[in-house]
């Protein structure tokens, strides 16, 4: 029981750490970008900037996939992640006989997709906005930075969710012969429409 609780606490800390590391490295990159190109300081920090840029992108991906996407779309995220992993591991002939991608399971997974995607986008917007503006004092220099990173993160989230739906449309339901006739109830155009209707700006 104790081991389970400790493991759970570590998981929560790790998930929160994704956001903290993302913000920290993104802030450093922003400061570096503002340095004069001819400054000695910029020259000294260029290696650190390269490392921070990599870390920023790495932790943003973890933040979006493991924290936002997984929580906002609990059923869809598990299903599509499993499907993507299977596509990377097996050949198409093998996938046509994989129980995890049977016609019944896929059809069941798609049934509640419209409601989950629509509510998930709204949930994700609220959460991302809170993460980047919830502890920022308005009128300070920090406000502009956090608003900029909020906008960028939201754009990247939109790209992520559109990519997941596109995987259903253009790969899963097209390349697997045994899923012939199964159609996704949500298209990339639907996702684009819902994203445009959802704002993270004040």
Protein described:
The chain is an all-alpha fold and 202 residues long. 79% of the residues lie in helices and 0% in strands. It has helices spanning 2-33, 40-72, 74-89, 92-95, 103-111, 113-133, 141-175, 188-197. Helix 1 (2-33) crosses helix 2, helix 2 packs across helix 3 (74-89) and helix 6 runs antiparallel to helix 7 (141-175). It is elongated and about 60 Å long.
In short:
The chain has helices at 2-33, 40-72, 74-89, 92-95, 103-111, 113-133, 141-175, 188-197.
Distance between the termini: 43 Å
Q: How can the largest sheet be summarized?
A: none
Q: Tell me the overall shape.
A: elongated
- The string of secondary-structure elements, in order, is HHHHHHHH
Task: Tell me the radius of gyration.
Answer: 20 Å
Mean pLDDT: 89
Residues in helices, as a percent range:
over 70%
Number of helices: 8
* Secondary-structure-derived class: mainly alpha
| Percent of residues in beta strands | under 5%
Number of strands: 0
Low-confidence stretches: 1-10
